[in-house]
Amino acid sequence: MRRRPVGGVLPEQMEKGTVKNHNSRVCCLASLSALFWFFLLYFHFVVLGEQTPPRKIGNDIGDVKRPPKDSNVRQVQSPQKNYPFIKAMRTAENKSDPCGGRYIYVHDLPSRFNEDMLKECKSLSLWTNMCKFTTNAGLGPPLENVEGVFSDTGWYATNQFVVDVIFSNRMKQYDCLTNDSSIAAAIFVPFYAGFDIARYLWGYNISMRDAASLDLVDWLMKRPEWGIMNGRDHFLVAGRITWDFRRLTEEESDWGNKLLFLPAAKNMSMLVVESSPWNANDFGIPYPTYFHPAKDADVFIWQDRMRQLERKWLFSFAGAPRPDNPKSIRGQIIEQCKRSKVGKLLECDFGESKCHSPSSIMQMFQSSLFCLQPQGDSYTRRSAFDSILAGCIPVFFHPGSAYTQYTWHLPKNYTKYSVFIPEDDIRKRNISIEERLRQIPPEQVKIMREEVISLIPRLVYADPRSKLETLKDAFDVAVQAIIDKVTNLRKDIIAGHTNDNFIEENSWKYALLEEGQRDVGPHEWDPFFSKPKDGSGDSSDSSEAAKKSWKNEQRDHS
């Protein structure tokens, strides 16, 4: 019989109790150690981390491309903030989604902002019945190819001011539309801004001219989509020049409406056929031409045909003089055309004119090596795009006629596809255009013409009722540019980048910056865009030019 130890505890039980107490102490020490390291790491990463400034994307602010002509990026303090557009940004990371980063949300506007205007098409112009020009999804009536100047299909008598309708109808065919605005890369506002102002330009007070614009802005600002970026992800299209929407005063005699001067509109991007060099909220897109291909083959066949044409004229010009404008060089250009044996002139005036005939215009451009494109009443002309469509190398006399306007659609190196002769060379020095053009070697002319012909797909608007297979047209280029602009702006907001050095009056310079550049300085074109010190001049002159342009649009090929 085993003897029981004192206290009734067996040796085996004492050994077990000792081990158990030892294990408890080890566990306690391990827990304390883990707790110590937890508080140490929490203090380091959370408490101290909040005091560390957000890391920038790239090595320097210059590593992030500034969105051209955008001055509304605000400073953001924390990169961890849950921005309302983060979901949209993340769609671009989904490589299995072909629409990732490309979704467009379209506002369902009340019909008074678009379709109702088409129902009242007779009131859209004081001198022109626009009803026929709004048919065929905005392309106008088909053109017959009687003289063999066009292709058999795809050609229409398109009015130069109908981009509102063409663009909106093309948007209906866009392959990445969404009903979920939270994943949208940009938001489209299908307001027919050009048609709205066109019907009220003559004989109406400023209250009537501004009414629809104010109504639109009020409608948009009440929508939840507006609050995502206060409208900076919104864009709209107007098939007119910017000066129709930039009334400077509240005087009844002043021109146009004030849409682009409304605070809300300054956040949006407006695509116009002529933009302002001194403002940040509008962007130039091409005037519509007569050609609207339904498939890629239509474009390829036309390009091949333009390559094979024999061009008997060295240069040509279609347009009317501007005797009431002392700055215009059109009179001198017309005189040079008349004197030259290798120059062709299609002179426009009131009444019946071949300038109203698309076939006469295109036939002349197709038979010319160079097409002269001086300013009209404003910087730009539809004729420039018609000439490029005909494979004719454009000759510009002011950088505002193309180079600072259509930076999304045309190469920044303008010498690849055009000739630049400063206006003063004609106005003051009366240089010979013929001699200047003869100095270009034939081989160089051939290279330039090929560049011009290669630009055709991105400068025409495809038929909205069809869809190109691989080519990107003017619509596609513009939409992608808007998406890039909004995306870059969102990245800047997340990174905390600001545009403190942005000078809106130099907007035209920012559009010419190369990748990675953010600051602008002196430019060779400064004399073309300088403003008088009293602030008057160019803007008001341009508004007056818009008024003259409206009067002359029936006379001239613009």
Shape: globular
The span between the termini is 125 Å
* Mean pLDDT, all residues: 85
Mind summarizing the main beta sheet? 6 strands, parallel
Label the structural class. alpha/beta
What's the structural domain tally? 2
Sheet with most strands: strand arrangement: 2-1-3-4-5-6
Helix and strand sequence = HHEHHEEHHHEHEEHEHEHEHEEHHHHHHH
Count the E strands. 11
How many DSSP H or I helices? 19
Radius of gyration: 32 Å
Strand content: 5-15%
Low-confidence stretches: 1-20, 45-79, 533-537, 554-558
As a percent range, the share of helical residues equals: 25-40%
Could you explain the architecture of this structure?
This protein has 19 helices and eleven strands. The model is unreliable at 1-20, 45-79, 533-537 and 554-558 (pLDDT under 50). Helix content is 36%, strand content 9%. The protein starts with 10 loop residues before the first helix and ends in a 6-residue tail after the last helix. α9 (296-308) runs antiparallel to α15. The longest helix is centred in the first third of the chain and has 37 residues, at 11-47. The strands form two sheets. A six-stranded parallel β-sheet has the order 2-1-3-4-5-6. It has two domains: 85-288 and 473-497 and 507-513 and 536-554, no CATH class; 296-458, 3-Layer(aba) Sandwich (Rossmann fold), CATH 3.40.50. By secondary structure, the protein is an alpha/beta fold.
